[in-house]
Amino acid sequence: MSEEATPGGGHRASSWSSGTMWPVSQIALGIGAVVVGVTDQDPLALLLTGVLALFLIPAGALQLLRRPRIEVVDGQLAIKKLGGVIFVSPAELVEVRALGVARWGARQHLMRLEYIDDRGREQLDVFTRGDLGTDPREVVETLAGLGFTGSGSRAHGG
Fold first, then answer.
1. Sequence-distant (≥ 6) Cβ neighbours of residue 83 within 8 angstroms
2. CA–CA separation, 41 vs 28, rounded Å?
3. Is 6's pLDDT higher than 70?
4. Mean of the per-residue pLDDT values of the chain
């Protein structure tokens, strides 16, 4: 998380995103796989390393492009998606809460963010620790402290 202080002592911007080490490593591994596949004269090795690179390089690039994932700027919540940035005011926020999910015996925490988009439809985004770069429970607490409590009304009554 990064924060910028204003002269009045309050926070002007808070943002959460994953680190850059993992996406850069994915891209480097993908490029390395291509190099291994090209230098090895085996067609099957070229196919397998090409398929590996086809998954690694775009996944790493997409993670780098969607940074920061969530940012609070001038009283609005900016959510970065592949199609662009969506701005949500506190009044449009329906719910923000932390979820605990048990998978394979390990507990994973998620952040559920529900809001009304510009077309009046309810949208639901779920963020993991990998998306936010920190514990989602801390992000929920910080957002609540900044006034994003999820007090908005539901669009379709349920």
1. none
2. 21
3. no
4. 84
